[in-house]
Amino acid sequence: MELAHFYQRNQLHRFTGHPNFRHFEFAIWLHTVARSLISVFVPIFLFQSGYSIVAIIIFYLAFNAIDVPLNFVVARVMRAIGARKTLMLGTLFTVAFFVLLGALPLAWWSLLILAFLEAAYDTFFWISHIYIFMEASREEANTAGTVGALEAIKRLAGIIGPIVGAVIVVMFGQSSLVLASIAVFALSVIPLFKLRHLTDVPVGRTPSIREFFASRREKQDYSAMALWGIHSFIEGILWPLFIFTVFGTIGSVALVPAIVSLGTALFSYGAGRLTKRYGVRMVVVGSAVVACMWVLRLTLLDPALYYASALIVGAFSLLVAIPIDVRIVSRALTSGSLAAATYRNAAAMVLRIPLCVVLIIVTNVFNFGFALAAVSLLGIIASITLNNKKDPLM
Q1: What is the pTM assigned to this prediction?
Q2: How far apart are CA 106 and CA 345, in angstroms?
Q3: Is the pLDDT confidence value at 11 over 60?
């Protein structure tokens, strides 16, 4: 609550007074609250329902395999109905996912239905959300500040959701948590109707994959985003499952994202501001530190240290994620928001497909996954610094 008061008093970034950003931020904040109430528990609910860890990874394999091509379908849908309606459809898909999560029987076809709904949510919501943000950013000169501020808003929401979600599910059950999430999802749509004077329907031709990636800069940025997708998957899916197998309680899982969000919410904006001058250095330092944390997680013997590692990973992850996004957003202002949003989302998912295949094959899922996360971060360092003669990302 004190963080929220700080945000309101100081107008976390100087453009919050613009109506488009104000309504957009509030919609994203509400949506993030709704997702954070329950999303961290999804692999845990599947595990508690009787699915094995291998079956859960197969679910995410199906999700990512559907997600990557669906991105390009959604880009066409946005041209037909606009970004705001596409975002609203994404919200409906995630509501359907959470309604069916506890209602479908234990079966492979149930996992496929859930995988499709999750992929539809990811593509419909995230492409349109990124597109609206990029279009709104055209009105601002400080791209790095806008990216950092939006990340801070999400982190503030992430403090609230997991703890409240854990309380609800422990005291009232999974169905009550689903209802609470749906209610907040519904509220998150309302501010979108108030966005004014914002380009909603994309115009112009979307470049092909070959055309879009003709530039070395795009190859670097989106390769880094694809490698970052590996870390995000391990951190967001395997790590909560690992924590649950160690501690065995919903509360232990909820504590991880809450600690991360609490420790990094305000740091997000500062990271955004530093990106303009020290972007490449931030990526190198952040990737190196987080890679070291993954290696330490392979050897840590004291479970209490897992939470300390979560705080460090959360803080230094910002040094990686924000500069990469700043690079993509700043280029999108001239190369085209729809193409950038589409390829960004597809890039974040594409390497997760072979990752899931490998994790299905290996015997020690957690150790192998943690090691791959460390390797992916080293790959980001190589990708983002290759032939880069200047430190600034702008």
Answers
A1: 0.85
A2: 30
A3: no
